[in-house]
Each structure stands twice: as C-alpha cells, then as structure tokens.
Amino acid sequence: MLDRSKLSFRNKLRLAFLIVTILAVLTTGGLSYSITSNILENNAMKLTQDSVTQSAKIVDEKLNKLMLVMMTFMISQPFRAMLKDVNAMDASSYFIRWTEMDNVFSQARIAEPLIHSIYVSTPIGEFYPSSMNLNRQTVFEKTPLYKRSAQENRNVWIEGHEDTLFLGGNRVVSLILQPISSDPVKDVYVVVNIREEGLRQLLDTGAEGGAEQFLLNGQGQPALQEEGTMIQEAVNSGVITALLNGAQTGYAPDQLNGEDYLFNYARMHLNDWSVVAIQSKGYVLKDLIYVKWMIAAITASCFLLALLVSGAFTGYLLLPLKGLQQVMKRVELNDLTARFESNSQDEIAQIGLRFNRMLEQIVKLIEKVKEAETTKRTTEIKALSAQMDPHFLYNTLNTIYWKLNLNQVETSQKMVVALSRLFQLGLNKGQEVTTLEKELQHVRQYLELQMFCYERLFTFEIEVSEEELIMLPVPRIMLQPLVENSILHGFDLMDSGGLINIRVERSPDREFCIIRVRDNGSGMDASEVSSKGERSNDGGYAIGNLISRLQLYYGDRAELRLDSAPDQGVTATITLPLEGEMQHVRS
Predict the structure, then answer these.
(1) What is the spatial distance between Cα 423 and Cα 243, in angstroms, rounded to a whole number?
(2) Which chain positions lie within coiled-coil regions (predicted)?
(3) How many helices (H) and strands (E) does the chain have?
(4) Which helix or strand (DSSP H or E) is residue 254 part of?
(5) Phi/psi zone of residue 133: left (φ > 0), alpha (ψ -120 to 50 degrees), beta?
(6) Spatial separation of the C-alpha atoms in residues 72 and 115, rounded to whole Å
(7) Which pLDDT tens digit goes with each residue over 268-299?
(8) What's the alpha-carbon Rg for the chain, to the nearest Å?
(9) Integer CA distances (angstroms), 10 to 15, 129, 315, 329, 477, in order
(10) By the number of CB atoms within 10 A of the CB, which of 25, 240, 300, 550 ranks highest?
C-alpha cells in the first residue's frame, strides 16, 4: 500500500493531478451512464406500457365482441322459446328446443372463433351443441362454476381451468351469463367456454422488447395457466398486487429474487382483470455494455495523458518553492539575514513575503524574550504576594499585638512562628508545585493561627489514611481557600463548637487521591453552592480560582465538588489523579 507520508510534494502534486483527472472522467462517465440507463429504462417502460395498454384494449374488444355475440344468442327466437318453456316448467318440448338451439350454437361459434363451447343449464334440461360430447359424470350444480355464479349473482368471469362440462380436458376460460328475458327467470345459467390458448395468443401478439405479458384477475392471481416460474414468483412476492393498487395504467421498477425487473400493467374495462408485463432490466440495458467499455477506455487514456503532462506542470509550479526552501535552509543555519525574493504575485510569493516578515518579528521577539527573562522572577514574586489575604494578615498581626499587651508572650511567640512557617511553606522557594505533606503543614499553620484569632470558635482534625500519599505532588496553597471559606462563612453565626475535618484517602479503584474538607457550619443552598465560583468578598482565594488552577494542572482528570445543604455544613471534595499527575507546571 502506498505510504503518502513518505511521498515528496512533487509526487503528491502529480498524484493530485491524476486523481482529479480520473475522478472527473469517472464522474462524467458515471453520470452519462446513469442518464443513458434512465432514458433507456423510461423509454422501454413507456414502449412496454403502450404495448400492454394495446393488448388490454385488444382483449377488451375481443371479449366485448364475445359479449355482443352472446347477447345476440340470448335474444334469438329459439333461446326465448326455451326460456318460455322454463318459466312454464314444460319439458315436453325439450328435444324440439334442443334441436332449434343447435343452429344458434353454431352461429355463435362461427361469429366468434374464440368460443370453444356453450352450455345452458335449466330446470327442464341441459342445452349444448350437438357436436360436443357432454361429460355425463359432471353435474353443473356441483361444479365450482355454479358456486361462483350463485355467490356473486351476476355475470362472472372464471379464470383458466380444465373444462369439466365437456369431454376432452381442454383448457378454457369461462363466462357465466344471466339470461336476458323480459320475464323473471330462475336457475338458468349460460356458460361460455373461451379457448385459453386463444386469449394467450392475443397477449403474445402485443408483447415487445423481451417482455412477458399475462392476465391477472381482481385478486392478483393469474387468469390463465402460466408455465413460467418467474410470473408465479412475481405474483407470490406481492410486487404486482402492490402495483395494481394504483391508477388505471402504470409502470414501476422493482426487484424479484435480488434482480431488477420492470413491471407494466393496464386494467381492462369489461371486468376487473388486468394485463401485466414483466421484463428484465438487464435485458433492457444490455446495449449499455458498449458504453461501459468506452468509459473504461477513455479513463485509461486520460490516465496515461495526465501521467505525461503532470511531470511538466509540477516542475513549473515547484520553482518558487525551491527558492523558498533554500532561504529556509540558510535560516536553519542561524542566518537570520536571509530573505526570499520573487517577482511573482501568486500565493507562494505571498508566503515568501510573510516568511520575511516572520523573520523580522523573530529578531524583535528574541530581544523581547531576553528582556522578559530578567523581569520574570520579580513578576512571580509580586503575583505570589498579591495572593495573600490582607484581611487575614491584618487580623493575625492585630491579635499578636493585643496578646503582647496582655503579656501573653508565649502565645504571641507561637503565633509569630506559625506565621513565619506559613509564609515559608506558601512561598515554597518560588516553586508552584509542592508535596501534599507540605500543603497539609501549610493549612495546619493557617488553622492554628485562626484558632488564636477566633478562640473557642472551632477545632480541626487532619487524617491521612495511607502514609505514601503525603509525597503526592500538588499545587501549593490548595487547601487554604476551603478552610478559610468554612471559618469566614460556615461559622459566622456560631460562637463555638465549629469543627473542620480534613481527610486524605485513596479512591476505591486506587487511581485517584481523594481530599475531603468538611465543616459543621451553617451550610449553603443550591444557589450559594453555584455562586462559589466567584471571588469572595473578603479578598481571599476564590473557589472558582482554585477550580481553574486544578484544570490548568490536571486537565479534566481533577475535580472539585461542593456538597452542602442549609444547616448541614459543607463538604469540599478534591479528586487528584495518582498517575501522570501534572499536565502543566510553571517553573
């Protein structure tokens, strides 16, 4: 596989030429192929739709002619005479009527060759052409034809089936008619058997473009016997049933067994049957194979041409870059007087000019950095001094003064030592990072000083669950803001009984150090907890400032959480990672 990171810019540029050229050719070819295939598909579907519509029209006209022939048959004198005998239930003239109607049967079959046979069932007997051999084993009232006619009580079209009324086992489509009579007549059924093969020939005559046409009844089932499995699979899949729920005519592409097919249909007007055509999309688009090969040949030719031309283009385009590269090599050798020169105004020339300006800025910045280094230490000391709480310092010195006035020399000495130790641990020799042991000593000195200032107001406890945790590197002056918050705000309404507990322990997964600072002060509601990110009114460390420092040093791995409720004290929990602790440490 090609490692693009090791390619030279020249080769990358040539590769870009080739990719753009091939993509353009493939995109053009793909769009051309897609447009052509869509045009061919639409033209094929429209052509097939015209064929299907024409076939439906031909079948409709043929069946309408058959209906007209049968109406003529039913208004003939012999048929009306037969109906008169049926109404009178007079069977004495049966053979005379049968002989008279035989001529009418022949005329109907001559008028419409599609008719295979005609059968009339009446209470006084059966009438049929004398040339046909009636199946004596079959009783009309027990056939599916009779059941369908009795259920629907109208002219009924019966799908293709084997003729059970006459011998020979011919495949026919049956039409059961109600007799035309001015007088009410019961239990008279006229069955017209149509040659199934004749209907199929009508459909095959209109089929074009490799399409297979077939008839479906109103329930979406084949009206004729179909030997092809594809038609039966299309019917069973439900694709055609969904298609027939649309308008009078229509077409749509769909899939069958993972292959694409085109479906067309047209409803017939005489009954609820439809003519449907199905054809393979691959057959319709077979001529596009030539287009595919043409696109492949054009792509290969363009690739070779781009390969030849790209070398000359890249050489010309890289000339300014080579000049800029030489200037950079001189700068790399500490020659800050090197400058890029070009008469062009293109983007590379603009980069060169900005590189010249950057060199000038670098020279100025070097001078500024040297000057800044000399003042850096002074600035850090001033910043640390600014962090000290002047209110706390004033209170402490004032307490020492009054205790000296009261001759409490020993207490005053302890306070001075504690204050000195507090400053020593807080300054930490200018280092921003200290150990947890020194941080606990710092907060202990602070709390002892505050106990001298606020006698009997509170007591404190410091607990460390594991001795090795005290060597953990932590930011300095991290705990003082939390205990200061407890003294100034948690115990402000108390005269005595305050308690501050500081506990250091390892998290259950042993990957974090947990430091909890609890007090039993007045507590805070939810709004006060959320407002602790702002600077305190007393000018000391703000909780928000501490959160910012923790995020600066540890990123998202450290956390400070406040839990409190009114009259239930405050618990501040600091979570510090034990591995890869510091992300940023100031020197």
Answers:
(1) 89
(2) 355-382
(3) 17, 16
(4) strand 249-256
(5) beta
(6) 14
(7) 888 888 888 888 777 767 766 777 788 788 87
(8) 52
(9) 9, 95, 8, 19, 56
(10) 240
Q: Residue 320 corresponds to which tokens in the numbers above?
A: 């300014």
For 430, what's the count of Cα atoms within 13 Å in the CB-facing half-sphere? 8
- What is the predicted pLDDT for the residue at 19? 81
Structure tokens at 353: 């000019």
Q: What is the pLDDT of residues 340-398, one digit of tens each?
A: 777 777 777 778 888 888 888 887 887 777 665 555 444 443 444 445 566 677 778 88
Strands (E) in 85-238, as ranges, are: 115-122, 125-127, 156-162, 171-177, 189-195, 212-216
Q: Which of 369, 324, 373, 374 is nearest to 344 (CA)?
A: 324
User: What is the model's pLDDT at position 384?
Assistant: 40
CB within 8 A of 44, min separation 6: which ones?
209, 262, 279, 284
Mean pLDDT of the chain: 81
* Angstrom distance (rounded) from CA 54 to CA 206: 7
Higher local confidence (pLDDT), 252 or 139: 139
Among 394, 421, 419, 501, CA closest to 458: 501
Q: Domains in the chain, start-ordered, CATH in brackets?
A: 75-198 (3.30.450.20), 388-577 (3.30.565.10)
